[in-house]
Amino acid sequence: MTMRTDAPLKTSGAARYGLDVTPPGTVYGYVVTSTIAHGEITAMDVAAVRAAPGVLAVYTPFDPLPLRTPMSPLLGETWVPLQDTEVTYYGQPVGFVVAETFEQARDAALLVEVTYDRRPARTSLHAGLADALDAPPSLHGEPPTLQVLADGVESIEDALAASAVRVDATYETATQNHAAMEPHSAVAVWEDGRLTLYSGTQGSDLQAAQLAQALDVEPARVRALNPFVGGAFGGKGHAGVSAFLGAAAARDLGRPVKAALTREQVFTATATRPATVQRLRIGADADGRLTALAHDSWSSTTATPSFVEPTSHGTSREWYTTPNLAITQKMVPLHVPPTTFMRAPGEAPGSFALESAMDELAVALGMDPVELRLRNSSIAPPGRDLQWSSKHLDECFTLGAQRFGWAQRHRRRVDRDWLVGYGTATAMFPALRFPCAVRITLRPDDTAEVATSGADPGTGLRTVLSLFGAEALAIPPERVEAALGDSTLPPGGMSGGSTATASVGSAIAVGAPAVIDALVAVATGPGGLFEGREVAYADGRVFAEGDSATFGEVLRAAGRDEVTAIGTSAPGEEMTKHSFSSFGAQFCEVRVHRWTREVRMSRMLGVFDAGRIVHEQAARSQIMGGMIWGVSAALHEGLEIEESGRPANGDFASYLIPVNADIPTVDVEFVRYPDTLHNPVGARGLGEISVVGVAAAIANAVYDATGIRVRRIPIVLEDLLE
Amino acid sequence: MRIELTVNGVAREADDVWEGESLLYALRERLGLPGSKNACEQGECGSCTVYLDGAPVCACLVAAGQAQGREVTTVEGLAGDGLDPVQQAFVEKGAVQCGFCTPGFLMSTKDLLDRDPAPSDPEIREALAGNLCRCTGYEKILDAVRTAAANR
Ligand code: FES
Ligand code: FES
């Protein structure tokens, strides 16, 4: 197996992330944030700041850097800082101090005196449930409230009432922060009216486009670079305040500006996963076949509503066969930090509710939870005609149950002072891809380059580009160099939605034949090595009858520096023929301490049907990381927002994410069915499916161990006191 | 103030260092060694781990002035030529995703193996509990540490 091509640079300290470049003359910016959650800034006294050592500039809403609100088809509007005096959340960027050194800027920033006209802040999701608003339409363009009812059924209530067995329960999930290890940052350099921006983001072309709009410069004058990104998980889709302020200040000052958020600032000045409340009502017949499913969701969102966590549409809309389905999605605008997509948006918290409720149903029915899920597996989303292109969820469950020892679950209930429990859950995540362009270049030294502007935020895309390039050109991967993370390369779109592998793979599948055609034209054209002859390409060589040459030899003979072609692809006709999703079965064992009530996840297995697995090692590692995100959601992380709007635990000392010592054995298996109905390479993406269902599997295992049903994550000790 | 120290075996100096400045800042911004990362600046994540006179420290919590006259080793100086066996093992086992935590993990791992050439799994987990990784789920990191121990 080829090793990750980025690993040597990352282990030697040579990989350069956004903040790792320091052009000559660099000065440093520090963001000032609000200390109230709602109100208006009436004055900012910055006289002492300006007088502080090393300070070059102070920008505030009263002395702003001009920035326009960028709009992109994929991301919608992106908020730009300092353009007005409204404060709508605690920790909102309200100023920017630039000084010769970072410490001078930070020190001076402490001297900013802000006067507010305070207004009451709405910060409680619970308090807002009663007057919640309808959410905007879903990703599929479906309305927030929808029903699919069987013929003759008047309402979902009727269907529920007529069901032999019923579950009705309400679940809650916490606000979360992506907490990528690399804080959001940027280094901005202007030269001759051109901006070069070094900043970790999920798509350099999107970043460049947002910056160009915000700064009102021609797109061609902005180059965004992000060859290495220190994690993203949805939190680096939109360009961030460091990028906007850094770039605008660098233009204003004529000096390169470096700006990074502190970890504490990342918790408020970027964005979070909304908190949710979800009510599940499920009805089934005595055999466990669903007869009705109702999923009502409430999501927190920003004061001016923006992103809403689509928990109902992301799960109950599609997961199980049911003759009667009703879902609603509401939002509660609050004075809380911005909301945005975070790893498995909708599915991650939605699956906690749905898959906990399914477990409650299994208990009510006295049925094996695995059997219950197999019995209700869907062949298409309810009320839609398009069947799943390639679904092997049953195999995930049967294989997983066997491998995990699910049948033993009733045996060993107590191990010394630990109560042992088993839990399971379904995982699903839609298979998507985005429009994508990849350039393939053949070079005279018999190497090739595969290049796209897309990002590798740790997923392994760089390695995948080499592998796909090698496969399409039939040469060893060592001879294929990958280039990415540069907005001047063909637009590769965003690394998000678990799309990148399918997107680049599809584009390479188009680009490779095109570059081979171009090579053949060189070989057979005037002055070519095989001028006027019939040739064929195989394994990096051009074959004419009785003769052959490597592509490098062909290019050298023709005096060519390269041949190149760009392959583009986008989702198309396949979308009218099938529904597409990845599937998985999550199993876990927990131990709950009899006296302290501490919960430890002691064993976990995920079996996934995610199409073709392109790079085994990178795939396992990414899946495992995602499963640990699920553990984290269940047992560790949650951003607590105080009544005032201040996060109570917005730093790494108190926002808990698992460390090595929290994580025992994690097992991952794949059922390998390439989904070539979805895209020519058959891969469906792995970034998100892995987190889905885990929190429910853990809560279900906690119930199995203790008999206590916890309907709120993260689960804390108090929840388990008897 | 001026500081003089040895970094990765080379005598270095930096001028105009502010008293409150961290060693991490001095290494990254003044001495051109951005391998050590700043992910929290509060001693919680281990991304900034370097050796100060051979002992691992969070460079974000050490004042630059405290390094005066002392020896500092960063990830850039972990190996002579090529990669140290610990680095090699991280490459081989794919214990790297975004890589932002990696320099810190390497420093902590090498320190562990210097003290205990054959640590048990619980000892590894405990020794690396001060390093946060948001990407990998830790299994590959554990694999890499075991491999490094075996190969040294
Ligand atoms: S940056 Fe030093 S411990 Fe996190
Ligand atoms: S590899 Fe990304 S934080 Fe560890």
TrEMBL record, chain A:
InterPro entries per the UniProt record, alphabetical: Ald_Oxase/Xan_DH_a/b, Ald_Oxase/Xan_DH_a/b_sf, Ald_Oxase/xanthine_DH-like, AldOxase/xan_DH_MoCoBD1, AldOxase/xan_DH_MoCoBD2, AldOxase/xan_DH_Mopterin-bd_sf
Organism of provenance: Pseudonocardia oroxyli
Name of the protein in question: Xanthine dehydrogenase YagR molybdenum-binding subunit
Keyword Repeat set for record: no
Aldehyde oxidase/xanthine dehydrogenase a/b hammerhead domain mapped to chain residues: 12-120
GO molecular function: iron ion binding; oxidoreductase activity
Keywords recorded for this protein, A-Z: Molybdenum, Oxidoreductase
TrEMBL record, chain B:
All residue ranges annotated as the 2Fe-2S ferredoxin-type domain in the record: 1-78
Keyword terms: 2Fe-2S, Iron, Iron-sulfur, Metal-binding, Oxidoreductase
Family matches, as PROSITE patterns: 2FE2S_FER_1 (PS00197), 2FE2S_FER_2 (PS51085)
GO molecular function: 2 iron, 2 sulfur cluster binding; metal ion binding; oxidoreductase activity
UniProt keyword Hydrolase present: no
CDD domains attached to this UniProt entry: fer2 (cd00207)
Keyword Plastid carried by entry: no
Taxonomy, superkingdom: Bacteria
This protein's name: Carbon-monoxide dehydrogenase small subunit
Annotated source species: Pseudonocardia oroxyli
Taxonomic classification: Bacteria, Bacillati, Actinomycetota, Actinomycetes, Pseudonocardiales
